Amino acid sequence: MHIEEIELREIRQPLIHFFETSFGRTTDRRIVLARVIDKDGTEGWGECTAGEGPFYSDEWAESSWATLREFLAPMVVGKEFASAAQAFSLMKPVRGHRMAKATIETACWDLEAKQARMPLWRHLGGVQAEIPCGVSIGIQNTPEALLEKVERELKAGYQRIKIKIKPGWDLNIIERVRRNFPDVRLMGDANSAYTLADAALFQELDQFNLMMLEQPLSHNDIFDHAELQKQIKTPVCLDESIHSSEDARHAIGLGSCRIINVKLGRVGGHAEAKRVEKVCRENNIPVWCGGMLESGVGRAHNIAMATLAGFTLPGDVSASSRYWAEDITEPPVTVTARGTILAPEKPGLGFDLNLARIDSLTVRNERVVRKTSASGQRS
Fold first, then answer.
1. Per the residue annotation, which of 263, 278, 346, 371 is the catalytic one?
2. 292 and 314: one domain?
3. pTM here?
4. Do 362 and 324 reside in the same domain of the chain?
5. Is 164 one of the catalytic residues?
6. Per annotation, catalytic residue among 164, 166, 230, 346
7. 263 given a catalytic annotation
């Protein structure tokens, strides 16, 4: 693989409905895309999952753009490497910035799968041609609005409901959802809104037969989560705390969780996601694919990752129409009546890019190209 050029684009795309978590409300997405081009002209696309501000993590769209343009793209352009799995190592001199690195790394995997004339999910080693899907429902203006959304998503066939919680929007909300939907596979996601001092609250939540509680405590903690897991019956799922396979191994060893959410951007791309999945699978810890309000590019990468053997629980990969009036991929991602997504069979991501749509949404773009020496030779 020899990358000749990386094009960066920022697009801005309005959500159909606001999405609110314990750290804020999102109405419009700023999304950074990367298009990598090999010397044979093959191209691959990746998406940065960083948010509009540094709230879910310390990365955000603006910092990712600068890091990609000034440091990461120049580290990859003009370099020759054996496979997409090695792309991350080229960017190793930059500490952190895993979401920015994953933007390029995942694009390289798309490119490589196209060169191999294989769908990306098969190229990654996926074994599930059909993946189960759940939905993530943000904090609503009223409990009644939440219940209406849950009913709508269940009618659409989704196999699992995740609701966001925060102090003041937790016990009573979960009790109401469970009362109205006694048999639904239900989980709560706190996005680090609580401390170990709130253990009594989580003990009360045990009565509602939740699949899991996702990241209830600090975003960088595995120790207090281990203590919390000892005190409650509901499985703890770690999200923000897991950035690598080493983090997963340590958390499992400490008993910090019984389930792990894998997000491509958070762990730095497909190669590390595969390593996290392997550690979890070998330790009988189920994993599932988390979502970050991705466009069709990031959604397609999530579908590919979720076909790996360890992804045994319904993830947050849902239909494009839940978020966008029009997505940037064709066809849009759709979900079957039984709440599943069929892995595409076309090479690479398996979806075509709607370039006219991308152009219409682009607010800035920049190309990082292989430098040409004074003698006219490229380096």
1. 263
2. yes
3. 0.94
4. no
5. yes
6. 164
7. yes
